[in-house]
Structure of MarR family transcriptional regulator:
Amino acid sequence: MEEERHQGHPMKEESPRNLLHAMCLCGDFLSYRRGQRPGQNRVMLMLHRYGSITQKELQEILQIQQGSLSELLSEMESSGLIERKRNPEDRRQVVISLTPEGKEVEHANHQLVARENMELFSSLSQEEQDELYRMLRVLLEDWKAKNPQAFPEEKRG
């Protein structure tokens, strides 16, 4: 098998492909476990984190199409989870926030996720979890430096 040197480390040709495949499978599994529409959880998390946010800012953070976000927000509004209001200072902007019911659902989701997170990584020792986290941070920092536009959430947070 062909080996290439990358930043002083030997790298087999199939290694990146295998790593990406494993990461995709992990992402698929995490989405499957949620049971809800994945975007809904992300919207609720961002609204919990920022309080109120414009629809345009939310679209940039989540990196989804305007039509997809509008459809998702309409469903969430119909379910009583969010409210949309015109910004009184700029009537062109729509400001989104969680309703009291939405805050309760987000809180329950947060508690559930905390329990699930413990379970997800229970097959790894604390040392292995720390090492995995360290390696993922190295990757993310490198990717962020090369493609800052891919991390719009960082701009606001």
